[in-house]
Automatic annotation (TrEMBL):
Cellular component GO terms held in the UniProt record: plasma membrane
ABC transmembrane type-1 domain boundaries: 166-362
TM annotation in the entry: 36-56, 168-193, 231-250, 285-305, 341-361
Membrane topology: Multi-pass membrane protein
UniProt record, GO biological process: transmembrane transport
Matches recorded under InterPro entries: MetI-like, MetI-like_sf, OppC_N
Similarity annotation: Belongs to the binding-protein-dependent transport system permease family.
Keywords: Membrane, Transmembrane, Transmembrane helix, Transport
Domain of life: Bacteria
Primary site of residence: membrane
Descriptive protein name: ABC transporter permease
Length: 375
């Protein structure tokens, strides 16, 4: 009896309120999913950090400082060496020493001077929208250094490089997924709307492309990119590669949805009223597929982030000096280097968090797009 009562209460929540629009019903169901909200928050945080990467970066991601080569992550302290508490966090500089037994380079904290962490400080210059700016979210006084996530082989701040790499990885995945969604939605809609020989040709093309496993195909085609191309051209080529080869699944799904929509009364009425094919497609068919396209888009983006990271990690995608999460992980291929300096694998953690965030968000949007289901 109690279970039946809870089930009735759950169903009643999903009933539309009088005068409530479809988007309001979708939002009401989306808010019920905690994992979707968590995923949205994670993506929002990652997006803000990537968009405003120079502001959150205490150092220039491209500036080398060989004296800080493979510097380990510094600890934030609230208690000094005498046990006194300080409300403002601080760091100690790291000094390089040689272990007399193993002759290995080791970093130890120099506790002779504290360097408090200040917020909204002036640092290296960057130019958002062409406007010179030196404001940064945090930093330390001159003479101190703060590498909260350590540094790489050339002494470049790893945290700053991860933020810049996140901007590149997210951008290439977003542009590739958008191009893929546009092609897939157009091919699927045209195939279903016109049918006949057009439908047959387009579906044979879809089947042909689906015969090849995507990742090996991307790897094979990425080898064909000329090594003399600049970083910008390689970026565009990889983005186009993702967009032109990852639309087939969406095309089939949109085709199935349009096949059911084209016989609906509102579509037939528009045709009888003399509406052109383009008007029927863009005003009546595609808008009714938009929620599904958005859901597929949010699921495609993490897949493309993993694809870009894999290609760049293997040296087949983006190359230095361009920075992406996959490029940053190239040094982790050497197990000896990874064992001595495990923080160089830190970009992998950001990849996992971002992919999980998009998957949580995509699952929530998928369920909310069908607000009358009881999942």
């Amino acid at each position: 009896m109690l279970k039946d009562k809870k089930a009735r209460e759950k169903v009643s929540i999903l009933k539309p309120v009088k005068g409530e629009a479809y988007i309001q019903l979708v939002w009401r169901k989306f808010k019920r999913s905690r994992t979707a909200i968590i995923g949205g928050v994670l993506i929002a945080i990652i997006a803000v950090l990537a968009i405003f990467a120079p502001f959150f970066s205490p150092y220039d991601p491209l500036k080398c400082e060989h004296r800080a080569s493979f510097s380990p992550p510094q600890k934030l302290h609230f208690f000094d060496d005498k046990g006194r508490f300080h409300l403002r966090p601080f760091v100690y500089n790291l000094k390089l020493e040689l272990d007399p037994k193993t002759w290995k380079r080791i970093y130890t904290e120099d506790k002779s001077r504290r360097f408090p962490v200040y917020f909204f400080v002036r640092g290296w210059e960057y130019k958002p929208f062409g406007i010179p700016c030196r404001l940064h979210f945090f930093g330390v006084q001159k003479g101190g250094a703060i590498h909260l996530l350590g540094s790489d082989a050339y002494g470049r701040d790893l945290g700053s490089r991860i933020l810049l790499g996140g901007r590149v990885s997210l951008l290439i995945a977003l542009l590739g997924a958008t191009l893929s969604a546009f092609i897939g939605s157009m091919v699927g809609t045209i195939s279903a709307y016109y049918g006949g020989i057009i439908d047959m040709i387009l579906q044979r093309i879809v089947e042909f492309l689906q015969c090849f496993p995507q990742l090996p195909l991307w790897m094979a085609l990425s080898i064909a990119i000329p090594p003399t191309w600049s970083s910008l051209y390689v970026f565009i080529a990889i983005m186009m590669l993702f967009g032109l080869l990852s639309w087939t699944t969406l095309a089939r799904e949109v085709r199935g949805k349009v096949l059911s929509l084209r016989e609906q009364e509102f579509v037939l009425s528009a045709k009888e009223a003399g509406a052109s094919d383009a008007r029927v497609i863009f005003k009546y068919l595609l808008p009714n597929c938009l929620s599904h396209i958005i859901v597929v888009l949010t699921i495609t983006i993490p897949w493309l982030i993993l694809a870009e990271s894999t290609l760049s990690f293997l040296g087949l995608g983006l190359q230095p000096p361009m920075v992406s999460w996959g490029v940053l992980l190239q040094k982790a291929q050497n197990l000896q280097t990874l064992g001595r300096h495990p923080w160089i694998a830190m970009p992998g953690i950001f990849i996992v968090i971002t992919v999980l965030g998009f998957n949580f968000l995509g699952d929530g949007l998928r369920d909310a797009a069908d607000p009358y289901s009881h999942r």
